[in-house]
Design goal:
single chain, 420 residues, alpha+beta, Nucleotidyltransferase, domain 5, two-stranded antiparallel sheet, 11 strands, 35% helix, globular
């Protein structure tokens, strides 16, 4: 393969697939030493090796100086007005790592520079392997987690790279980053939510088979003791047993974390499955505060569970919610943002590659489900506070009328007294 970062505007996904699956296309494979991944890639030369001013007479590059020079350019673009787009282009044209080549100029929906920095941090510090626990979930009446228990199984293969390498099994694995938190010896209500992006058909021979993606996230319900807006568990895969296996995993995660499920209802059979097992209570109804205006033309009266995502206007609105959530500051002192707590490298890679017009971005759309749930949670509570405040104000007005009006209920001293 011959190319430079950023010159594959329309063919990025195809070139990316060839680069990350070299043996499939009879391309000489090399170990991916740049991003600490046990996978094969095409031949890649980092941009800092191409700068002639940092080569000696023998043509050997002073890597530290060359890399520092390019990093200084990146830092200056980051601080410039409108620097996010300029920085993204610079990273594309002068990449340090293979994945930086495939940032798409037409797909900068999400904050690419910030996501790139976080991805480099996750990979260089091996953060994913430090926090992930691959598990099997199973029903157990004695489990304190609502009758669902877990067992560690390091032999399972979680999908941690996007795009998924050709040789990788797509069975997937449930990954837990943090076990459910208990309050008064139980997993409290409304503390976790689930976002799910199901796949449409069970046929694995589809030309572009999508994956099922599930993320479990904390809500702000008990932010002081439990935390908030953090992914605590995930599943990504396309198991041999198809939608049935995905629904069973979704069911167990929902019970395990006592979480409502937000899902796209135009594909898959999630509602049918939960109706069959008489557990519709685990499904979130269609959001009323997020899509009430944007999706009014989609006849929401006929859609009770889940949310529609087939309409581009609705999808774009949801993506904007996700972008805002990624950049939301969690801590004013350290300026940590929500995206700085993501440890899933494949999710970060998907966010960087995301396009509204082509490709399957299952992890991104599952995360959209979580953010829709968080927005609904926030708006519901806000509406509740407004209602309670208005009710309290009305009660106070009635109290003032009664207490402060001396003529109200006044009985004249000369009025006749009725006989008993």
């Amino acid at each position: 393969m011959i190319g430079t970062g950023g010159d594959m505007e329309k063919g990025t996904l195809h070139a990316q697939e060839m680069f990350y699956s070299p043996e499939k296309y009879d391309i000489l494979p090399f170990d991916n030493l740049y991003e600490n991944q046990s996978s094969k890639i095409g031949y890649f030369v980092p941009s800092y090796y191409t700068l002639p001013e940092f080569k000696n007479k023998e043509g050997i590059t002073d890597v530290d100086k060359a890399k520092a020079f390019l990093q200084k350019q990146r830092d200056s673009k980051r601080t410039d007005k409108g620097g996010s787009q300029a920085l993204n282009l610079l990273i594309q044209y002068m990449p340090f790592t293979p994945s930086e080549m495939f940032l798409s100029r037409s797909a900068t929906v999400f904050p690419a520079a910030e996501l790139r920095r976080r991805l480099s941090e996750v990979i260089s510090q091996n953060l994913y392997d430090k926090v992930e626990k691959k598990v099997n979930l199973f029903f157990d009446p004695s489990s304190p987690y609502n009758g669902v228990n877990y067992e560690l199984d390091p032999s399972l293969d979680a999908l941690t790279t996007f795009p998924t390498p050709e040789s990788t099994t797509t069975e997937g694995a449930v990954v837990i980053y943090e076990l459910p938190r208990m309050i008064d010896d139980r997993v409290p209500d409304d503390t976790y939510i689930i976002g799910c992006d199901p796949f449409k058909e069970d046929d694995p021979t589809s030309p572009t088979p999508s994956l099922a993606a599930i993320y479990v996230m904390k809500t702000p319900k008990h932010f002081a003791s439990v935390g908030h807006d953090e992914i605590v568990a995930s599943y990504v895969g396309r198991p041999y047993m198809g939608k049935q296996a995905v629904n069973e995993i979704l069911h167990k995660l929902a019970v395990f974390y006592n979480a409502k499920i937000y899902f796209e209802n135009s594909v898959g059979n999630i509602k049918d499955y939960f109706e069959k097992i008489r557990k519709l209570s685990l499904l979130a109804t269609q959001p009323t505060t997020v899509f009430n205006k944007k999706a009014s033309h989609l006849t929401p009266q006929s859609v009770i569970y889940g949310y529609p995502m087939s309409n581009d206007k609705v999808k774009w609105e949801a993506i904007q919610y996700l972008r805002s959530w990624l950049l939301e500051v969690r801590d004013e002192e350290s300026l940590t943002r929500n995206l700085d707590l993501i440890t899933d490298p494949a999710l970060l890679q998907e966010l960087l590659a995301f396009s509204m017009t082509h490709g399957n971005y299952d992890r991104v759309m599952a995360l959209v489900g979580c953010v829709i749930g968080l927005e609904e949670f926030h708006n519901r509570n806000k509406r509740k506070l407004i209602t309670e405040s208005a009710t309290s104000a009305l009660k106070e007005e009635f109290r003032k009328i009664i207490v402060n009006n001396p003529k109200l209920f006044h009985v004249s001293a000369t009025a006749p007294i009725l006989p008993r």
